[in-house]
Amino acid sequence: MSFVITPPATVSVPVVGTKERFPVHRIYCVGRNYEEHAKEMGFTGREPPFFFLKPADAIVAVDAGSTGTIPYPSLTKNLHHEIELVVAIGTGGKNIKAADAHKHIYGYAVGLDMTRRDLQGEMKKQGRPWCIGKAYDHSAPIGPITPAAQAGDVNNAELYIQVNGTDRQRSNVSKLIWNIAETIEHLSTAWELQPGDLIYTGTPEGVAAVVSGDTMVGSVAGLGTLTVKVA
Ligand code: MN
């Protein structure tokens, strides 16, 4: 087959313990999935999960032990970090039951749902899509994917992010409002999940701004650390 323009490259993420890489199909993100973060954003209570997407090529894949770099994005004056557990789907499906969700998971990674908060806020106020705040270029840094069998007890893993060595967010995956299995159940009623999909599961409280020159170190216990510098 030939193409009229050069086809885009396959976006991929390194995998712990192999030179083979995980190809990315879609990036789904869960909104307000930790109670204390929902509160800091002005909401309370357990609402049905809701989702937004980022384009696959928003990924900034960072190798283990390396420091990734993201440019300070255009149009914003309030760039926020959101540390998140990321689930990598290995086997697709629709209407997946929570009890079967583990069969669809290839592995897990540490991710950052970088957010142009001022633009997202303006879109919220106007009832418009969040894309410009959430789905911009380089908005999805991610560390290597750890295969599920090697990942330990991710449902009870501590996660944190430090900026320039100071704690910003620190919580535990056990505090997810909709846990990993429930998230997959809900998500797969709305979209047919495909191998290569990533799910950013949501962020705990403590989201805050970074500026040029800041270094973010994020981690989910058992999945290593993700280091990203803002250029
Ligand atoms: Mn998020």
Report on the architecture of this protein.
This protein is mainly beta. It has one domain (12-230): Alpha-Beta Complex (Fumarylacetoacetate hydrolase, domain 2), CATH 3.90.850. It is built from 4 helices and 18 strands. The strands form 5 sheets. The protein has a 6-stranded mixed sheet with strand order 4-3-15-8-9-12, with helices on one face. A 5-stranded mixed sheet has the order 6-18-17-13-14, with no helix packed on it. Strand 17 and strand 18 form a beta hairpin. The model has no long low-confidence stretch (mean pLDDT 97). It binds manganese (II) ion. Manganese (II) ion binds at residues 29, 82, 84, 113, 200, 202-203. Residues 29, 82, 84, 113, 200, 202-203 line the site of manganese (II) ion.
Order of helices and strands: EEEHEEEEEEEHHEEEEHEEEE
CATH architecture: Alpha-Beta Complex
Which word captures the global form?
globular
* Ligand set: manganese (II) ion
CATH topology: Fumarylacetoacetate hydrolase, domain 2
User: What is the CATH H-level superfamily?
Assistant: Fumarylacetoacetase-like, C-terminal domain
Number of alpha- plus pi-helical segments: 4
What integer value in Å does the Rg equal? 17 Å
Highest-level CATH class: Alpha Beta
Instruction: Label the structural class.
Output: mainly beta
Largest sheet: 6 strands, mixed
Helix fraction? 10-25%
